[in-house]
Amino acid sequence: MNSFRKIYCRTFQLCFRMALPVLPYREPEILEDMEDLGRVLAQKGKKSVLIVTDKGISGLGLLKPLTDALEQAGVSYAIYDDTVQNPTIHNVEQAKEAYLANHCDAIIAFGGGSSIDCAKAAGARVVKPRQSVQKMRGLLKIHRKLPTLVAIPTTAGTGSETTLAAVITDSDTHHKYPINDFALIPRYAVLDYHVTTGLPRQITATTGMDALTHAVEAYIGGSTTKLTRRMAEEAVRRIHADLKRAYDDGSDAKARESMLRAAYCAGIAFTRSYVGYVHGVAHSLGGRYGIPHGLANAVILPYFLEKYGESCEKRLGKLARICGIAPGEADDHAASSQFIQWVKDMNRSMEIPEKLEGIQEEDIRQMAAHADRESNPLYPVPRLMDAKELAAMYRKIAAQGDGCSRRANGLAAERKQGKWKSAIS
User: Fold this and answer.
1) Is it the case that residue 138 has pLDDT exceeding 90?
2) Calpha distance 123→111 (Å, rounded)
3) CB < 8 Å & 24+ apart, contacts of 64-71
4) Is the pLDDT of residue 421 over 60?
5) Treating both helix axes as pointing N-terminal to C-terminal, what angle do 201-220 and 332-349 enclose, rounded to 10 degrees?
6) pLDDT at 158
7) Alpha-carbon distance 37 to 63, whole Å?
8) Inter-residue contact 368 to 388 (CB < 8 Å)
9) What stretch of H or E contains 411?
10) At the N or C end, where does the chain have fewer CB atoms within 10 A?
């Protein structure tokens, strides 16, 4: 990246960091179960809610505890369950129309990050009917209070129940639109580990590594605060201790509960301190090829940590020591290297491929330009990169017909067979 652009990016990031203390961040009110939610909605005078989910969840009957609680509280509901993995503008528009047609006065997102993001964007469209999703892209484009929004995460990964962000895909252009506004932070979040105990192992793995990516990118970036550092450290400690346990035994209540808390902490960290190039690249891959976001983040993370090199060693080394990944006496270089190796080992132990299959050389230039536009100047990364440098990273993570490629092919086949349902991605 040329010197003038570097100065612009760092100046933008410095101004944003200086503004952090006065920006209207807030956390959702945490509810423990569906019965609590029903009571709260009734007390708030809500008469009809729209449940935004997907076919995987509705088909498995996972909504029953929620709908039973709503019925008991005297709150009627409508269900929109066509949300897809990497939710589209079409999904958002359909959900908005379902909200209006059923005279709803609140929205409940039940699912993974896809359903929560769809619900957020649909709420934004309800209050801003003349502003398209494309025009909401970027920072602070909504400026209006959404209908009461409740997030019930069924995965421990995205942290979307805490964040001001939603990411929506344009099916025509294959671009993703990150939307960031304080209005998108849910009013309530139901953190009930019971809804995560049935997750397939690979969803547990990739969503858990998604949460790790959120925490790490927030921690090593240039806009950390005392709160975000503390939240990121707690998230990584929990992931280090409990992700593999949850992967090995999906019914492990303690591990599941801990992972929900880890995702929540990571969400608080990155919604204030932002992410980095891992997310910029992952978003472009999701938009172009439909690669699940958590899978993309898990594969990409160690490559960028290695690329950042000395620019992130001090913070990454500290994180490794605090979380018990490296011994307390290890220097920054050794500790950061051990952290990167731990990420690789975690991926391998959970059958996550080392590279991503299907990346086409002819697409890289456009994807890199898209990742560049998303990331610069917003993301306070340890080392700045331009589109040319990012293009080289796509080539590093692209499978070249080795064993990793075969594993990626296997994962793609599993998705086609329904083992990786969009509903729980």
Assistant:
1) no
2) 16
3) 65/34, 65/195, 66/34, 66/37, 66/108, 66/110, 66/152, 68/34, 69/33, 69/34, 69/35, 69/37, 69/38, 70/38, 70/41
4) no
5) 160
6) 85
7) 13
8) yes
9) helix 403-416
10) N
Q: 16: closest CA among 167, 106, 138? A: 138
> How many other CB atoms are there within 10 angstroms of residue 14's CB atom?
13
Average pLDDT over residues 151-160: 91
48 - beta bridge partners? 76
| Whole-angstrom distance, CA of residue 42 vs CA of residue 24 | 27
pLDDT digits (tens, 9 = 90+) for 310-350: 999 999 999 999 999 999 999 999 999 999 999 999 999 99
How far is the C-alpha of 215 from the C-alpha of 417, rounded, in Å?
A: 32
What is the value of pTM for the model shown? 0.86
Q: How many other C-beta atoms can be found within 10 angstroms of the C-beta atom of residue 233?
A: 18
> What beta strand segments (E) does 356-410 contain?
none
Contact predicate 117/155, CB 8 Å: no
Share of the chain above pLDDT 70, in %: 94
Q: What are phi and psi of 353, to 5 degrees?
A: -65, 160
Structure tokens at 148: 């009461």
Give yes or no for a contact between 224 and 218, defined as CB atoms under 8 angstroms apart.
yes
Length of the chain: 425
| Residue (of 378, 368, 384, 380) closest to 138 by Cα position | 378
pLDDT tens profile 82-93: 999 889 999 999
